[in-house]
Amino acid sequence: MRLFLDTANIDEIREINRWGVLSGVTTNPSLVAKQNDDPERVWKEILSEVEGDISLETTELEADAMYEQGVGLAQMAPNAVVKVPMTPDGLTAGKRLMKDGFKINVTLVFSPAQAILAAEIGAYIVSPFIGRIDDMAGDGMHALRQICEIYEVQGYETNVLAASLRHPMHVVEAGLCGADIATMPFAVFKQLVKHPLTDIGLEKFLGDWKSLQERKEGA
Ligand code: G3P
User: Fold this and answer.
1) Closest by alpha carbon to 188, among 7, 48, 2, 1?
2) DSSP secondary-structure letter at 121?
3) How far is the C-alpha of 98 from the C-alpha of 128, rounded, in Å?
4) CA-to-CA distance for 28 and 112, rounded, in angstroms?
5) 66 to each of 12, 43, 120, how far by Cα in Å?
6) Average of pLDDT values for 128-151?
C-alpha cells in the first residue's frame, strides 16, 4: 500500500519525505487555502518536492470548464493527477481527461455505488472519504471493504485511495481491506512511527551501551 500525505504544507511534506516512505500527496481546495499563498506556487513546490502522484483539485463545476481547468493542472508536471468531484459533470470531464492521456482522481466518494461509476470511466484513482462517513454515524471502513471487494471481483484497475483517515488504525484497516493507497494528515503520519516500547527499548540499549563504554574506560 502506497502512503500519501494529505496536506499542502511544504514543510510537512519535506519532513515526511526524508523518511523515504512518501509515495505521493493529495491536496484539496481547503488544504491549499490554509497555506494563504498563491495556489500555483504551492502546487509547483509540491510537484517538484515529491516524485510520486500529486493530486490537484479542480474547482469548476461545469464539465467543459472543469476539463479545461484539469488540462491546465495536468500540464503543470508529469506527476500531476487531476481531482474531479463525484458529480455527473465530474464524470464527464474526468472521462475526457483520461481519454486524452491525463490521470484523474475521483474525489468526494462516499459509497460503493459512486466507486463503481469512477471505475467505469476508467479513473486512475478513486478516493472514498472514510472519516467523513464515520462522522455521519456511518461505517467508513465497511464502505472501503466493499469497494475493494467489488474492484477485485470486477477486475477494475482504478486505484483505491483511502482518504479522510483520522488515526493509525484507519491506516492499518485500509491496508487489510486491500486499499492501494492511504492518504493521511501529517499528525497521523507522525503517530504511525511512534510506539512507547520503541522509546523504552532504545533508551535501554543506549544505556547498556554507555555503561559498557564507561566500564572499558575504567579498566
Ligand atoms: O483530501 C481529502 C480527504 O482526505 C479529506 O479529509 O479529514 O478533511 O475529512 P478530511
Assistant:
1) 7
2) T
3) 19
4) 22
5) 29, 18, 19
6) 98
Give the position, in ligand 1's atom list, of the atom nearest the Cα of 166: 7
DSSP code, position 158: P
What's the whole-model pTM score? 0.95
Question: What residues act catalytically?
Answer: 83
- Dist. CA 150 → ligand 1 center (Å): 23
Instruction: Supply the DSSP symbol for 163.
Output: B
Angstrom distance (rounded) from CA 142 to CA 145: 5
Nearest CA to ligand 1 atom 7: 164
Query: What is the torsional sign of CA 156, 157, 158, 160?
Result: positive
b/e map 97-132, b = 16+ CB within 10 Å: bbeeebbbbbbbbbebebbbbbbebebbbbbbbbbe
Residue closest to 123 by CA, chosen among 103, 137, 138: 103
How far does residue 211's CA lie from ligand 1's centre (Å)? 48
92-125 pLDDT, tens digit per residue, is 999 999 999 999 999 999 999 999 999 999 999 9
> Residue 2 — φ and ψ, nearest 5°?
-80, 145
CA of 215 to the centre of ligand 1 (A): 54
Q: Cβ < 6 Å from ligand 1: which residues? A: 6, 26, 28, 129, 131-132, 163-164, 183
